Amino acid sequence: MEGLMTGYGIVSILLLVAGILAVFIPFFILKIRNQVISINEKMDKIIKLLGGESEEWVEVFSSEAIPSKAAPDGMKYCGHCGALNGRWDKSCVKCGEPV
Ligand SMILES: [Zn+2]
Fold first, then answer.
1. What's the 80 CA to ligand 1 centre distance in angstroms?
2. For residue 88, what are the contacts with CB-CB under 8 A and spacing of at least 6?
3. Alpha-carbon dihedral of residues 47, 52, 56, 58, nearest 10 degrees?
4. CA 90 – ligand 1 centroid, Å
5. Which of 23, 25, 26, 79 is deepest in the core (most CB within 10 A)?
């Protein structure tokens, strides 16, 4: 009889633990979700660093119209005013024209 009581005791403790875990599961899911989102953002940056963006193709096509000088690593010269822009600048820092 004592052994049976101990068995029920263990079961009730397990149920209690399971209940506590069930309360915290939404928090875990939220945490995992945030981590997945941050990983995706990091992956986007990595893809951009590797030059996987379609911007590269835009550069290739636009370079036919405006022959650009050889810029330092990852940098772009403005086709309008010739100012040096960062690789990920969407528009020229000097004249504001799209680069
Ligand atoms: Zn410019």
1. 5
2. 48
3. -110
4. 11
5. 79
Cα-to-centroid distance, 98 and ligand 1 (Å): 8
Residues 6+ apart with CB under 8 A from 75: 84, 85, 86, 87
- Dihedrals phi, psi of 77, to nearest 5 degrees: -90, 140
Residue 91 alpha carbon to ligand 1 centre in Å? 8
Q: How far apart are CA 76 and CA 70, in angstroms?
A: 8
CA 54 – ligand 1 centroid, Å? 21
User: pTM of the predicted model, to two decimals?
Assistant: 0.32
For residue 28, the model assigns a pLDDT of 87
